[in-house]
Amino acid sequence: MKAIVGLGNPGEEYEKTRHNVGFMTLDKLADFYKFESFRLEEKFEAEISQGKIDDEKMFLIKPQTFMNASGRAVQKILNFYKIETKDLVVIHDDLDISLGEVKLGFGRSSAGHKGVQSIIDFMNSKDFNRIRVGIKIEDRKIPTEKYVLGNFTKEENDTISNIINILPQTIEKELIK
Q: Is 113 in the active site?
């Protein structure tokens, strides 16, 4: 059994923002693998979808705690279902990676990402897989918080959509073992 967490912020106003790449990717995964619809599980403070990839039971998790408290929801779910952190995959935006690039990693620090740091703090471990989706553009002139909470431009959205469309195969090939 594995858990794939997409980081983002709940609510329509954040739906298409750069910070919600994790949520967007989970929507694509659920559709691609024909998982059940996401449902709010209040006791976990998360929207959850279940399904299988290569006969492996999976939980797709969208914490509804807002980015900086994501770890609280992740901890509740992993503890309840007895999922080890090594079986956790976290998908999130990354300002240090160019728009459209993807990097996989395991056991790394948060590198300043507050959602990832929250998971590390609540789980008392950094031993989980991460998929970092680049949102950095070179000529950004607005403050970080405003940038990550802003919507993608048309060109950025095209790039991110292309990446999100190939992530299901990447996840299956590289992380589902």
A: no
